[in-house]
Design a protein that fits this description.
By secondary structure, the protein is mainly α. It is globular, with a radius of gyration of 17 Å. The longest helix is centred in the middle third of the chain and has 24 residues, at 65-88. A hairpin with a 5-residue loop joins β1 and β2. A two-stranded antiparallel ribbon has the order 1-2. The chain has helices at 2-16, 29-47, 65-88, 98-108, 113-133, 156-170; strands spanning 142-144, 150-152.
C-alpha cells in the first residue's frame, strides 16, 4: 500500500506542478484520508437537508441539527488551535472552558442557515490547510485535548475522523453505520 500511495503522490505532484503544497511525508496519511472522507460525507448529508430541516432534532439527545453542525464546525476550529500549538509551541487550548465551548455552540446554532453551512465548510477547509502545512516534526509535538489528555498532533486527524463520521450519522437523515469506514466501526 505504501508503494502505491507513494506512486500516487508522485503522480499528483507531477500534475499539479511547482507551487502546490502537500502533506508532510511524516503526516498520518491514512488518518487524514479518514478525516477528509468524513468531511465529504458530512457535507453530503448536510447538503441533503433543507434550511428548515436544520431546526429538527438530531440524534443527539437535546440537540438540534443546528447545534450538531455548529459543534462540528467549532470542533474543527478547536483542532486547528491544537495543531497550531504543535506547530508554534505556544499553548493554545481547544477551549478555555466547557462553558465557553457550550456557549459557542449555542450561539452558532442561532446563525442563519447559510452562515451555519459556511461555518462548517470554512472551518473544515482551514483545518485541512493547517494539517497540510505542518512539517514533519510538528506531527510528533505533544498537545493536550480538552479533557487534559496529552496526545501527539498526529492523533488529531483520527479524532476528527471519529467525530465527523459520527456527526454525519447523528444528523439523522439516512446516514448508517454501514457507511462508516471499517477502521471506525465499533470505535
Amino acid at each position: 500500500m505504501t508503494d502505491s500511495l507513494d506512486a500516487e503522490r508522485a503522480a499528483l505532484r507531477a500534475r499539479l506542478g511547482a507551487g502546490a503544497r502537500y502533506d508532510s511525508p511524516a503526516a498520518p496519511a491514512e488518518d487524514l484520508v479518514l478525516a477528509r472522507r468524513g468531511t465529504a460525507y458530512f457535507a453530503r448529508k448536510l447538503n441533503e437537508l433543507t434550511d428548515r430541516d436544520l431546526d429538527a432534532p438530531s440524534l443527539v439527545p437535546g440537540s438540534t441539527r443546528r447545534h450538531l453542525v455548529a459543534h462540528i464546525g467549532y470542533h474543527a476550529r478547536a483542532l486547528t488551535r491544537l495543531a497550531d500549538w504543535g506547530r508554534t509551541g505556544i499553548e493554545t487550548p481547544m477551549y478555555a472552558s466547557a462553558e465557553e465551548r457550550d456557549a459557542e455552540i449555542d450561539l452558532g446554532a442561532t446563525l442563519p442557515a447559510q452562515a451555519l453551512r459556511h461555518l462548517f465548510t470554512h472551518s473544515a477547509v482551514h483545518l485541512n490547510v493547517v494539517w497540510r502545512d505542518l512539517e514533519d516534526a510538528h506531527w510528533d509535538a505533544v498537545v493536550r485535548t480538552f479533557d487534559g489528555s496529552a496526545i501527539r498532533v498526529r492523533q488529531l486527524p483520527l479524532l476528527r475522523a471519529r467525530a465527523i463520521w459520527q456527526g454525519a450519522l447523528d444528523l439523522g437523515n439516512g446516514g448508517a453505520a454501514r457507511d462508516l469506514p471499517p477502521q471506525l466501526r465499533g470505535s
